[in-house]
Amino acid sequence: MPNRPEALSVTVVAPDALARRIEKSLAEGGYSPAMIIAQPGGDLAGTLRESQPGMVFASSAGGSAPAAISVPASAGITELLKAVREYDRALPVVVIADPWQEEAAIEAMRAGARDYVLTDHLNRLPAVVERELREAEWRREHARFEAQLSKRNVSKASACSPAGSLTISTIC
Q1: Residue 117 lies in a domain
Q2: What pLDDT, on a 0 to 100 scale, did the predictor assign at position 43?
Q3: Which of the 8 DSSP states describes residue 111?
Q4: How far apart are the first and last CA of the chain?
Q5: CA angle, residues 44, 126, 73, in degrees to nearest 5
Q6: Are residues 40 and 53 in contact, defined by beta-carbon separation less than 8 angstroms?
Q7: Where residue 78 sits, what CATH number does that domain have?
Q8: How many other CB atoms are found less than 10 A from the CB of residue 101?
Q9: Are strands 93-97 and 115-118 parallel, antiparallel or unpaired?
Q10: 69-121 tens-digit pLDDT
Q11: In the Cβ-directed half-sphere of 68, how many Cα atoms lie within 13 Å?
Q12: What is the predicted pLDDT for the residue at 143?
């Protein structure tokens, strides 16, 4: 088991029992999870601002009916993904789904979730978390570089343009 000394702040939108299973799986994988359990339909944006998580787990697993997430991605998961993207475009969302919800989990990925893990394979979570945290940092770094490049290109274009006109060009 890799040594992961840092605490991992996560927001979980799932039933309490599943949230505890997620917590146990992360702890067994060497993480020290600090979890905030958000209720579906609650103020997710506020929860994200307050908790500043490194990852979000979303699930409707634990229900007795396979229709808890419908295909295509339900309005609930779509709204959740929208709230997360507005908070931080790089923040990974991993869907936790019961085995009969795998198609819905795939649809959630098409809507913007980064990965999914089935409830009967929660032992995969530590590896998924490790990869997603690494990729989230890469996405943030890429966004910073793009912003710097864009700023630099606008500055160069302004310097190359006659007064009063804007020509996007990097060659003067």
Answers
A1: yes
A2: 84
A3: T
A4: 55
A5: 45
A6: no
A7: 3.40.50.2300
A8: 26
A9: parallel
A10: 333 346 678 888 998 999 988 899 999 999 999 998 999 999 999 999 999 99
A11: 21
A12: 83
